[in-house]
What we know:
Among the domains are: 1-161 and 206-241, glycosyl hydrolase (family 31) (Immunoglobulin-like); 264-580, Glycosidases (TIM Barrel, Alpha-Beta Barrel). Helices cover 19% and strands 31% of the residues. The protein contains 13 helices and 43 strands. Strands 5, 6, 7, 8, 9, 10, 11, 13, 16 and 17 form a 10-stranded antiparallel sheet that branches. An 8-stranded antiparallel sheet has the order 1-2-3-4-18-15-14-12. α8 (487-502) links the parallel β24 (476-479) and β25. The longest helix has 16 residues, at 487-502. The termini are far apart. Residues 37-218 form the Glycoside hydrolase family 31 N-terminal domain.
Amino acid sequence: xxxxxxxxxxxxxxxxLKDGALYLYSExxxxxxxxxxxxxxxxxxxxxxxxxxxxxPGVVLNGAFDGWNLNETDKEISFYSDELMIxxxxxxxxxxxFDGSGRLLLAEKSSESRTLEEFTAYRTGEKVTKTVKTADGxxxxxxxxxxxxxxxxxxxxxHLEFADDEALYGLGQHEEGFMNLRGKTVYxxxxxxxxxxxxxxxxxxxxxxxxxxxxxxxNDNEYGSYIYTEADAEMDYYFINxxxxxxxxxGYRRLTGKASLLPKWAFGYWQSQERYESFDEIINTVKEFxxxxxxxxxxxxxxxxxxxxxxxxxxxxxxxYPAPSENxxxxxxxxxxxxxxxxxxxxxxxxxxxxxxKSGLMLETKDCYNAFSSAARKMxxxxxxxxxxxxxxxxxxxxxxxxxxxxxxxVIRHEPGRAYEDYIRDAxxxxxxxxxxxxxxxxxxxxxxxxxxxxxxxxxVNLTRCAYxxxxxxxxxxxxxxxxxxxxxxxxxxAAGLNFSASGLPYWTMDIGAFFVKKSVNWYWKGxxxxxxxxxxxxxxxxxWYQWGSYLPVFRAHGTDCRREPWAFEDESDMRFYDALVKxxxxxxxxxPYIYSAxxxxxxKDKSIIKPLGFEYPEDEIARNIKTQYMFGDSMMVxxxxxxxxxxxGRQLDGDTKxxxxxxxxxxxxxxxxxxxxxxxxVSVDAPIDEIPVFVREGSIIPCTEFKPNADEQGDIxxxxxxxxxxxxxxxxxxxxxxxxxxxxxxxTRITWSQDKGVLSSSDGRIFDAxxxxx
Length: 775
């Protein structure tokens, strides 16, 4: 007979309070519960003799909150405040979480709820490597070497029991198009088209922030419901009772820090292209925007602005980018900002590489600087400062910040589970096993702290591809990676952005029209439009993608295979696509007061700029699961058109321009027609090529302005009132740039609408003229 080892008992044999924290002891391990506030608790479990006390960079709220109470009976222990109660089954060590009224929020599995498995981590010593060229840049691949031990860690697994009627959101960005994560397996690691943020949000108003920096798996299927972390010293997570999903995001920000406010220009239009090849081309492009009176605030230089053959070198190629200070000044004179792509991987032999290598500040694989080192971060910024920032560069595009993209070396894509293992294999050669997801965080610190150390007059803007816990502090705009052009990709991108925003970081964008338009050999280069802009089917897709982009936190076009300027879609025989792009662009600029105030609320009130309908209507089963509608600010519901109406891959369609839209409870006005609808129903609305259906909630005040071609030229603010009940709105105004807002240098104007009096007024007694939309 086989011998069955007896598992260690999980029964709680002792509990004690120390410095405000509750410790629970069992043969299987030690539990620790630290109250962080009345509604947030940190929960840890270790199989070792003591907790690690490791300092982790994502969470900034430290120290135990005094004021929780302890109650013990024969069967359970309760640790609680007036807003959150955690009960522990003394027999099994499993937890249940309740709100202040006693409503059950979440239960753990009734037995064996937490499991830790110790293992030894290894790395390859004396590596043999080769450099390969991919569509994602030059990559170093480890081909051989001797394995050396790097430490002992635990795989951790927390088993949970979700309610049948709850939806789950967050965990970063998922290219599969997941919205509600119930029934899904989510691999939480960094990749070209993935963003890992270990924040899970429930429609029941609670959240779990797993405080790991290793890859993670969320699972909710027939194999169980659990959160698994790849490598940690102990299990460590935070439970947030936010009461609402919005409250959970606010709790996440209290734990991990305020979201920085981007400069006002960052909410205008960004024109990007793979790639502009000279300053002359860039300046002429800006001039054409001005000639056509199309809005533009930022022009972007993609990769290869460095001297030929010097991949990642932080200096300009003098042949194509001469006199950088003079030419960037010309861009500024035209009313635009200049963003530059910079990379973390200077190739061997470049001046930047040599400087890092001499000081031992490259990663062991010699393919990226060691962003985990404060000395390396300082050196990286000094290189940026002396060769780029000094010339007036306004913003940074920190590309390939994962910086491991194992899947980009393949012709046939691996299945998700195998791709996860590929990432662990390659990332563990570069990073400590328990920090494999953290490189993007530290790289963002490099740029933010570097520029903040130079000036407080210019806000940091960092467009980057991956993020982690707390990265909202560092002025990062995340984009969704190198996507391919199809209607299916476009639909999936909407949910991808919403789950990213649900994870607590407010600024997200994508490549309008997708990065890859044509079809090539590798799995990722699979666009459906080999004729690109000559194909009216692609022009239609691009317009719909662009319209959606105009209702995102950041409005940005980018890609390869074809030009992305609006006039690339101009056809004298069919101007409707070009005209629709111009209309969407100008409409964005009229809404800048609303958008900038929404961004300010993300800083001041810890709100989200975009969010799933399930955040706003968590009791509505339909709203909880909708993937292609969302809230933009507090008042607008955006309904992107996600199907072709005119052309579809070589054939002309019948031009049926109706789409079905779900209206949650309450009253709604169509922004384009002002028609009023009652909520709680699906409605059919017209969506011709120049319209994206947007609905405004009854009882909303929308500040807007006349179109000007850049944000700095914004005209007078006027108001639209979508009447039906008394309401209020807070308008935010500041200098538009600089960090004065951190010390209160801004104006908040509270504006109210009296339905009975028909008067729009401010808190200081001013009466405003307004356009009143009523029913």
